[in-house]
Amino acid sequence: MVNEPFQSGRDFAVALDQSDPLARFRDEFHIPRSENGEEEIYFVGNSLGLLPRRTPKYVDEELEKWRRLAVKAHFSGENPWMPYHELLAEPMARLVGASASPSEVVTMNSLTVNLHLMMTSFYRPTRERHRILLEEHAFPSDDYAVESQAIVHGFDPDEALVRLRAGQGKHTIDTAEVAEVLERDGESIALVLLPGVQYYTGQAFEIEAITRLAHGKGCVVGFDLAHAAGNLVLRLHEWNVDFAVWCTYKYLNSGPGSVGGCFVHERHGRREDLPRLSGWWGHDKESRFRMEPGFRPILGAEGWQLSNPPILSLAAIRASLDIFMEAGGMEPLREKSLRLTGYLEWLLQREIGDAVEILTPSDPSRRGCQLSLKVKSTASGRTVFERLEASGVTCDWREPDVIRVAPVPLYNRYEEVYRFVEILRNAI
Ligand SMILES: Cc1ncc(COP(=O)(O)O)c(C=O)c1O
């Protein structure tokens, strides 16, 4: 796999592309072009994934049903809207390693909304056990959500939030450090909320090990998989994660603001004692349209739905999931991703190792496709980033000083990685 020796020179990159069994999937996407008409090196699928060529067809089908059938399309025609979200359950479950019957996953709302819905059910604080463990530099929306949940339950967030810090001189948090905090404070922690992949450093957290450790201390464990879904091989069911939430507009290529994903472990999907915020779309399907009072949840994650979902967004997600399934699911994509990012790391170290610090762990099992780079040159990181943009590279800048680059196995090429490193060297 990635321990193959890489070679310098463009020919090697071209040869890797020629032998790449997934190379044809690039043609499934619209690649943005720079002003000079050339295709951009688009390394920012960790922020917004590209538009699949087939998406307009899937969305148009629904618009056409709206035109032809209007309200009747809820119940008639091909793929009626009423159960439309069910079409997404199986491929989405495959992508995150969930069981499909009754479904542990549902596509609904957006990430932060789903996080609140999950915390309403799974953050059940008592005086003795009310704290929430999260990272010091958690994604701000998670931070705000967690803080507000503590406040809603009458706790002081300064006291209730336990923040994991990277050790002195380190950028990432080891599982041993999570274990230490759990050993010290575990009895007072109600909920552990961590990312699958950290948005800033690109570090992949050891979901299975952390879940086991936290469960050992009696904590509930949830994961924010915004940067992990469609990036890593996940086995949420087997790893016994309590809940997880993710968005679909990054690696899942479903378009800006598209609907998010939510996982509730089977152990909880059948429970009747869990409080939740309810809505009619989570109500038992057989009796939903009797319009009677008395909420009875659907078994599984679907029971957390609130509203009838935006079909146009679900259609876009369906188009994208079909591509993932045609590519053989996450395993082959991850295999390519390990090699693609491994090649990027190898070239960076070889060509400009003394001018670039890579914050992301070098152990491939502890990262996804993203590398987070800190430039150590006379030109500022921001200037280097602007030069990259001016040279047809689209990546992103995260304050205070990080350039994130994410070669995505579905549509990026080895040859782009080669050119990127050349451009970065010149920019520095
Ligand atoms: C790690 C992480 N968590 C949460 C969010 C918030 O997502 P949403 O706006 O869909 O709620 C994002 C958005 O980019 C994210 O990257």
SSE-based structural type = alpha/beta
Instruction: Determine Rg (CA atoms, Å).
Output: 22 Å
Helix content: 25-40%
Distance between the termini: 31 Å
* Unreliable stretches covering 5 or more consecutive residues: none
Sheet-strand content, in percent, reads 5-15%
Placed side by side, the strands forming the largest sheet appear as 2-8-7-6-5-3-4
Number of helices: 13
Order of helices and strands: HEHHEHEHHEHEHEEEHHHEEHEEEH
The small-molecule ligands in this entry are: pyridoxal-5'-phosphate
Query: Looking at the structure, what is the overall shape?
Result: globular
Arithmetic mean pLDDT:
96
Number of strands: 13
From the structure above, extract its key features.
428 residues, globular, 13 helices, binds pyridoxal-5'-phosphate
